[in-house]
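Q: Can someone sanity-check these two? First one:
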Amino acid sequence: KRYAKMTKDASSLLEYVFSHQGVTMRGSHRTIKVARTVADLAGSALIREEHMAEAIKYKAYSRKFWEVML
């Protein structure tokens, strides 16, 4: 939490995906890391909802890619 401070909207979005999509704790930590990177690239000190949404999209795309490959 020290390095991944986020807005309430971003936190709510992550909680929703975590509870409704069956994301594991490890998966949520990875998503937060990606969201932190997206926020850094956008020059934002906080992870905002749009950063979290982009990270979640990358996660979904990655999952679909690997399902096809296996």
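And here is the second, same format, sequence then tokens:
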Amino acid sequence: WLAASLIIWVAFDMIKEAIRKPLFTFTPKKDSYGINVKIIGKEATIVTNPDTGKLITVWETSSKKKLKYGK
């Protein structure tokens, strides 16, 4: 039950939409893992490494962020 409650379902199309039509893209940040960029999309928020092109993490965009960054 606990494992199931920790899973956040985000469809691949939501990720593609965030990359293709971002509501907001933050300035790249460098941390101990390298460079990462946070991108807020209409349905998904993603963090990616622009150097490798790899997706680091993803979650559903909150309604608060949709209101703040929505177009």
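A (reply): Looked at the second one. The CA atoms of residues 42 and 61 lie 7 Å apart. Residues 1-6 have pLDDT under 50 and may be disordered.
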